[in-house]
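Checklist before submission:
- one chain only
- standard amino acids only
- sequence pasted in full

Submission:
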Amino acid sequence: MIVLALDTATTDLVAGVVDTRGEPRVLAESVTATRAHNEELVPTVTRLLAEAGVGFADIGAVVVGCGPGPFTGLRVGMATASAFGQALGVPVHGVVTHDAVAKLIDAPVTLVATDARRKEVYWAKYASGERAAGPAVTEPSEVDTADANVVSVPPHLAEQLPASGAEFTYVAPSPLGLVAAADLSSEPAPLVPHYLRRPDAKEPAPAPRSAAIPVVDLGELK
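Returned file contents:
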């Protein structure tokens, strides 16, 4: 089966075409650091399909990373994946982005951390390939790296995590990892974004009443 894999949960725009017949292999992929996910995602998918020598009609399933990540980034990838799924009549499988990264790392205990901004990180921990904790969002200093063998974290955040005997590296999400994290044989569940934080927008607090405005008992007006 030809699978289209997408992820916009991080600053990397991830897109790829994976052939899952036999041993999964990538026919075409792009992992690019950008903040213009909305403008670049669909043109990138179109280009990759051409590079892979397949068309939209050949796609049998879509896999998309559902975070954790910022609201705007997740919305781009998940909305696009849903649109492709509806237009093509194919299933759309959502996966945790950190799960997809962990699938690419061979270690007894792996910790995956990504930039959550606001001086925080999104993280999840894996033991024997299965998620053992997270995903969660905390300050970098609060992440427990003590028992990790490998820590995947963006270079600019590496020094902010507690020091340990782990190997620190950075592994970006990839089409192959996304497909490996998905159960393509199962009925896909509704896509659920992992925001992990409340939205920035808040309902404004009521303005205090001016002392110049008299209090009127409406009952007295009847």
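Reviewer check: The chain has two domains: 1-97+173-197, 105-170.
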